[in-house]
Amino acid sequence: MDFYEMLGRYYDVIFPTNEKQLMFLKALLPERGSVLDVGCATGTYAIPLARLGYDVCAFDLDSPMVEMLVSKTENDENPPKALVYDMRRLPELNVGPFDLIYCIGNTLVHLGSLAEVNELVKACREKLKESGSVVIQTVNYDRVLAHKDLSLPLIDRQEGRMRFHRHYELKDAEVVFHGQLEIEGQGKTEASTTLLPVEAGDLVRALEEAGFREVNVYGGFDGSPHTLESPATVIVAGS
User: Fold this and answer.
1) Do 98 and 129 touch, CB atoms closer than 8 A?
2) In this structure, is residue 91 part of a structural domain?
3) Positive or negative CA dihedral for 170, 102, 218, 22?
4) Does 111 lie in the same domain as 225?
5) Across the strands, what pairs with 36?
6) 156 located within any domain
7) Which of these, 42, 159, 164, 204, has the minimum number of CB atoms within 10 Å of its CB?
8) What is the domain extent for residue 129?
9) Comparison of pLDDT for 173 and 36, the residue scoring more
């Protein structure tokens, strides 16, 4: 089974909107602004930002997830503009410019190489307003690679009726992400996907080479310093 086919139906339960993350993104926006969500899934952040009055364009390569986003907002006055689209083709997308572009939820590491990362970052720079910002968030692969830390916390939802078990496997220059979805009364489903373990330094270099003047690296959406022990890598870059 495809990894996101396994997750899609239950995505909103497994990965609900985190208010701290939403406020982190909102703080980077003017009172009325435009947003591009790169890898929107089912609209976890695109939908609440649109409901707050922002002009949101959101895309994902997974068609069923985008369909879920559209279904959830069919009665909204200001729904996100939702597209099925490949982030590798962002330079060709005739949208923008935006006040904020974000690629969060460990989305960027689905690219196949650092060259593709560089191209995506350049495309983001080109589609930003002069005062705009880019936010990128991934797992802290510095820690994964340095410590060979291949475990991820269990996600337990609905008082144990749904569990998402996760772990990594290092394979050459890639990381294989193994997931097992356990649902009470329905058994277990397993799937895997291959990720590119992009380190914080690689992202900073890509952003600086693309022309971003101010690049800040955090260990989470709480604004904590980024260290080798941080659970995440969150980068905010100003144009």
Assistant:
1) yes
2) yes
3) negative
4) yes
5) 57, 101
6) yes
7) 159
8) 11-140+198-238
9) 36
